[in-house]
Amino acid sequence: MINMDEKNAYKTFRIASIRPDNYRVKTFTLDGALEAKPGQFCMVWIPRLNEKPFSIMNADPLTFNIAAVGEFSNKLHELAVGDKITLRGPYGNGFALTGKEKKVLLVGGGYGVAPLYFFAKKCLAQKIEPVMVIGARNEQDVLLEKDFTEEGVRVVVTTDDGSKGIKGFATVAAQAELDAGGVDAVFACGPEKMMAALARLCKDKNIPCQVSLERYMGCGMGICGKCVCGGQRVCADGPIFPGEEALKENDFGQKSRDASGATKTL
Please, are residues 206 and 59 in contact by the beta-carbon 8 Å criterion? Predict the structure, then answer.
């Protein structure tokens, strides 16, 4: 186990490879590993600028899937192979399996797909069948489909405009998979409106559901209180919460993060 002192210590890696995924997303693979669980995140630091949380796409080698949507992430996109990245973590609780699952449904919307890739690999290692629903606005925005299929995961793609896969939101495909039966649990990461709808669907069907919440994080370790959702600190008590627990919070499904990383009401 990594204790808090180890988590909070800054670690520096070199970039081993950078893969462009689309017009604004790149996958950064670093030259080392981190003991981490799927769903956890790291606070990545850029000297004289700031530090921001990023979900872990893979722990060995340590990998992040980063969209250039603001000043901080654009600065990361300027880095090249061989450059250094400094970070601390991992933080958060991660997705959890009971050990009784045989088949699970993973639902990722937009940039929420990356941590589910890490989780899919964990499921496969435990002989659990993951089915991955990837939701995006259009074909250009579909992320990591090839990564999942190369691991042997069945992928269902949905796009808002119908340019690839099923036309509609990810919840449309998720409901079809749940209606078909055999799904023991659901795990989701992405826009809160999507996750709230999915959590309500799972509640109606009495299927366990876990969702990954996003809030503005100043410290990443539960001290500053900027990421509070209801009575929960998202960075320390989450970011993974049972769907039914998240539905009890009045602002769940009503928030999103802008390019700066700040949380805003929809």
Answer: no
How big is the CA angle at 126 (ends 154 and 184), to the nearest 5 degrees? Answer: 60
Q: Determine which helix (DSSP H) or strand (DSSP E) holds 52, and give its type and residue range.
A: strand 50-55
Query: What is the domain class of 103-265 according to CATH?
Result: alpha beta
Query: With 0-12 CB in 10 A as exposed, 13-18 as middle and 19+ as buried, what is 118?
Result: buried
At 83, list the tokens: 């450059």
Residues with pLDDT less than 50, the chain: 1, 255-264, 266
CA-based Rg of the chain, rounded to a whole angstrom? 17
Give the number of C-alpha atoms closer than 13 A to the C-alpha of residue 130, restricted to the C-beta side: 27
CATH number for region 4-91: 2.40.30.10
DSSP state letter for 24 = S
Measured CA distances, 16 to 49, 77, 150, 218 (Å): 23, 14, 21, 28
pLDDT in tens, 237-249: 889 999 999 999 8
The DSSP bridge partners found for residue 107 are 133, 188
Do strands 25-30 and 11-20 pair parallel, antiparallel, or not at all (unpaired)? antiparallel
H or E stretch covering 235: helix 234-237
**CATH code 2.40.30.10 region(s) in the chain:** 4-91
| Distance in angstroms (rounded) separating the CA atoms of residues 26 and 44 | 15
* pTM of this structure: 0.91
Summarize pLDDT for 209-221 with one digit per residue, the tens: 999 998 888 888 8
pLDDT per residue over 65-103, tens digit each? 999 999 999 999 999 999 999 999 999 999 999 999 999
Tell me, what's the pLDDT at 222?
80
Rounded CA separation 147/150 (Å): 5
